[in-house]
Amino acid sequence: MGRFVLKRLGISLIVVFMVSIITFALVRILPGDPALLAMGTEATNEEVAAFHEKYYLDKPVVAQYFIWINGVFHGDLGDSIKFSRPATDCIFERLPRTMSIGLPALIIASVLGIVFGIISAVRRGKLIDNIITFLSTIGLGAPSFWLGILGIFIFGLKLDLLPLSGYVAPSENFGQYVYYAILPVSILAFSLLASVARQTRSNMLEVINQDYIRTARANGLPESRVIYRHALKNALIPVITTIGLQVRVVFGGSLMIEQVFNIAGIGTLITIAIQGRDYMVIQGCVLVISVFVVIVNLIIDLLYGFVDPRIRKSWR
Fold first, then answer.
1. Could you say which of 87, 111, 145 is where a domain stops?
2. What total of structural domains would you count in the chain?
């Protein structure tokens, strides 16, 4: 297992390195001079030159990359052009807000998605199956911003049960955090849950029709044991993959939720940085997100082995 983990770590480092190179190159292809966007078109040539020198923009692109990557190894992502402060501070100020909304949504979606997928597969063709399938289709097809606006209209304006927008950190007041987070977490979880439920249902339907499942039933095993111990375990691998893919949505794709509910998270920060050609913040955000995604993928690879003994055997 140790050899497998080291191999996966090596591949992960290569992936992060490639992402950093591609991101660094792409942001410099964007039209517009960061100096003019930051200081205005009335800035003098001397001011623009001083700006370029301050942020190393006067150096060749390759030299800029090595200066930046050297800073990364020392925990310095550079200074934000837009906010005139370290990019690290900007990112790690916003990241907890996104995580405090996205992670609960992912956990809820994973647990309920698997449960609903099992129920839908076991009760195939029944009323509950039709309801779950219908709601899953809405979750997959409806844009998250539309669901957010609909939730605000119903629970905020009409019923006056939940706040329209805003955010409170759980470390400041956990009760208020829950109060403000219920709606955005529920909307984000609903979209994520739909994918997990559909994947679970599809895999369960395929597995429960296998010969070994029919044999287990013929031997008189309780239905719950057949479903949860034999069928579910073999149906989980694609579901785990689906859940892992949702991590990128939590960290990078929750922009619409943040915009609708006025939450200053990492998605909003990336948007502001792109508009202002804030190279350091863009590069830092993408790097942090890619590291999280790579770590989650490594965890998923390890979970495969715990779910499927055949994969665990291949690690030796």
1. 87
2. 2
